[in-house]
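can u do me a favor
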């Protein structure tokens, strides 16, 4: 990083007027700055003050170093950016011309890409013509042309994203707008992985800015009549989300890893049980269950006499899901396993729903109860974590034989916006890097996964607050702490060899597997991405 030392001194933290005022006044204790920043946050009820809002110089450099510690980025000849000050209309035209052949004939993708282009055109038409600020000085004015010319443009892009995020976190909307004008020409949703992930984060910052414009004079958010925020309304349909999820399951190991680990834990815990009752939280598909049915059919002590799956859906059951359920029941019957599949439709899982009466559970001799959560429980992790605690206590009262938990292994629930932004940028950059190694840049499947699935997660993490922010991912240590306090103890997973075999089938060397205190972890180039675990009631 010696060549970039000049750029690393770029005064990111001086963008925030509150920070400038504090530094000039001679203050500067880290705790006092956290308090000042907390007052500027939309989210007014943080529970974890260990996550500082701003990075120290050494932390910032370490973050940027780790961000670029990826093999693919060393090939700079294949990862170029447009010229810094190229007119946006010309940039927009080039993107359409280069990508038109790829999307030709795919109406759905054409519509999706048209939306992306309109988003870029909308932000550009307003932002590239912003007048200069009268109070700009040498410290706060951002100009790419003034930055050391030999520094890699990708590094500049990362710094601009971080600086823009800090301006957003400080509610300096005019400065954030100004910085976004310098980010847009350097991002490309069809470029290399850094350009693609930066596009998603830039759009998230744009949504966050729209949110800030809906603030009341007292600093609270203006909501619509139905309680949602217009500025970050979700335009992706349920069908598009499901298609993107299925593509992710098919082309990467991230989803299949969780299914495999949970199914193996259920199969191991079901030994000697004649009947299985599975409560599946938040499912919208049947992708997990065919492999479980086949595993149960080949048990050493014979298949169970019955299996009952109760799926709690957030949305009404679609025709495609009904068809999948029928096919699953037929497959189970062909393997000699009577399968019942019941559906409960509730937009939100509450403790009142998780009772034996509501779930129609009446366990008898030789029956086992399982609670399965695949990337769902994080939606109930609020700032106070009271909601998650109530859900876990309700699950405990059901007396399950085993609880299986699969989650994203990252801290996207910090109380400070900038901390969440940094963590999520690092996390999703690793995922986009893995997609770069797995799929070509003109892949329609890759585009749908990135724009429909991951971009929506990113938007929710950095643009939403309060009950609208549901992508509240936690680290393994936090899940271990929360489940332990609720009265559960971990059960070590014993499927490392199966996980290695499964990951090897995807043909990429970058995936890594690790075991940590009972958790099975899947990562990309040593960066944790997914965690899987199993839990039983504490003795």
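np, heres the sequence
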């Amino acid at each position: 990083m010696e060549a970039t030392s000049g750029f690393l001194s770029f005064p990111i933290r001086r963008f925030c007027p509150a920070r400038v005022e504090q530094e000039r006044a001679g203050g500067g204790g880290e705790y006092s700055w956290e308090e000042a920043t907390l007052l500027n946050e939309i989210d007014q009820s943080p529970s974890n003050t260990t996550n500082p809002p701003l990075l120290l110089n050494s932390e910032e450099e370490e973050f940027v170093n780790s961000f670029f510690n990826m093999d693919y980025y060393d090939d700079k000849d294949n990862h170029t950016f447009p010229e810094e000050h190229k007119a946006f209309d010309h940039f927009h035209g080039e993107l359409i011309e280069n990508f038109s052949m790829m999307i030709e004939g795919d109406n759905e993708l054409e519509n999706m890409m048209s939306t992306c282009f309109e988003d870029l055109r909308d932000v550009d038409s307003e932002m590239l013509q912003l007048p200069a600020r009268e109070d700009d000085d040498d410290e706060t004015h951002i100009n790419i042309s003034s930055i050391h010319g030999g520094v890699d443009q990708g590094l500049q892009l990362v710094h601009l994203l971080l600086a823009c995020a800090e301006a957003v976190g400080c509610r300096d909307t005019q400065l954030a707008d100004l910085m976004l004008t310098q980010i847009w020409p350097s991002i490309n949703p069809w470029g290399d992985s850094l350009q693609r992930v930066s596009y998603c984060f830039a759009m998230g910052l744009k949504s966050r800015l729209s949110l800030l414009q809906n603030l009341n004079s007292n600093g609270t958010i203006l909501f619509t009549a139905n309680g949602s925020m217009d500025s970050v309304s979700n335009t992706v349909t349920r069908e598009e989300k499901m298609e993107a999820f299925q593509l992710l399951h098919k082309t990467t190991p991230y989803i299949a890893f969780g299914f495999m680990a949970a199914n193996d834990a259920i199969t191991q815990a079901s030994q000697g049980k004649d009947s299985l009752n599975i409560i599946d939280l938040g499912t919208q598909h049947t992708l997990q269950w065919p492999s479980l049915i086949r595993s149960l059919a080949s048990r050493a002590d014979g298949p169970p006499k019955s299996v009952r799956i109760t799926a709690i859906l957030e949305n009404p059951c679609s025709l495609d899901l009904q068809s999948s359920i029928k096919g699953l029941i037929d497959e189970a019957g062909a393997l000699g396993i009577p399968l019942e599949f019941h559906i409960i439709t509730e937009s939100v899982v509450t403790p009142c729903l998780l009772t034996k009466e509501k779930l129609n559970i009446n366990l008898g001799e030789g029956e086992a109860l399982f609670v399965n959560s695949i990337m769902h429980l994080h939606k109930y992790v609020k700032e106070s974590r009271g909601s998650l605690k109530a859900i876990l206590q309700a699950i405990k009262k059901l007396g399950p034989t085993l609880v299986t938990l699969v989650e994203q292994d990252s801290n996207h629930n910090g109380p400070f916006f900038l901390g969440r932004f940094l963590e999520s940028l690092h996390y999703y950059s690793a995922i986009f890097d893995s997609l770069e190694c797995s799929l070509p840049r003109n892949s329609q499947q890759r585009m749908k996964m990135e724009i429909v699935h991951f971009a929506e997660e990113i938007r929710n993490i950095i643009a939403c607050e309060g009950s609208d922010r549901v992508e509240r991912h936690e680290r393994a240590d936090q899940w271990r702490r929360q489940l332990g306090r609720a009265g559960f103890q971990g059960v070590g997973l014993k499927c490392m060899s199966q996980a290695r075999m499964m990951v090897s089938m995807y043909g990429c060397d970058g995936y890594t597997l690790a075991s940590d205190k009972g958790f099975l972890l899947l990562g990309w180039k040593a960066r944790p991405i997914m965690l899987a675990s199993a839990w039983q009631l504490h003795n």
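The chain has a mean pLDDT of 77. hope that helps!!
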